[in-house]
Amino acid sequence: MKKFVLLLLVLVAGALFFVAYNFLSFDDTCQNEVLSELANPNGQVKAVIFQRNCGATTGFSTQVSIIEFGHELKNVGGNVLVADTNHGEAPSDENGGPKVEADWIGNKNLKLSYHPKARTFTKVTSFNDIQITYEEIE
To answer: What is the pLDDT of residue 81?
Structure first.
C-alpha cells in the first residue's frame, strides 16, 4: 500500500510539473518577429506590427502593440490587436498571419486595417489615450 501511495504521489507531482511548465512558462516558447514599426507624428510612441509564433501546435498570428518610441518590443502578445487567418478564411501574408496595415491619423489616432475574414482575439479601441479605429480591406 505504501508503494502505491508513493507511486501515486510521484505521478501527481509529475502531472503538476507538466502543467506548470507548459502553461506558466508558455510565453517562453513564443517568439515575436517584428514586421514593421510606425511612429506617431510627434515621435512619442510607435505601433509595432509583428508575427507571434508559439510553436507547432498553434498557427501564426499577426499582432499590434503600441509602445514608447525608443523601446523594444518585449516577448509578449499584442496589446492592441491579435488576429489570425481563421483557419485559412483570410489570406495570409508571407509571414503566415493575416496582413495588417497601420496609419497614424494625428498623434492620438491610429487606424489599423486587416482582411474582414481574419479572426480577432484582441481588438481594443483605445490604449493610453490613443484611439484606435479599424478598417476592413480585401
So the answer is: 97
With a cut of 50, say whether residue 21 has pLDDT above it. Answer: no
Instruction: Phi first, then psi: give them for residue 134, nearest 5 degrees.
Output: -125, 145
pTM for the model stands at 0.77
**Is residue 93 predicted with pLDDT exceeding 90?**
no
Domain with 80 in it:
30-136
C-alpha cell at 31: 517568439
On whether residue 75 sits in a domain, the answer given is yes
Report how far residue 117's alpha carbon sits from residue 70's, in angstroms, rounded to the nearest whole number: 33
Q: Is residue 79 part of a domain?
A: yes
Residue 50 lies in a domain: yes
Domain total of the chain: 1
The number of residues in the chain equals 138
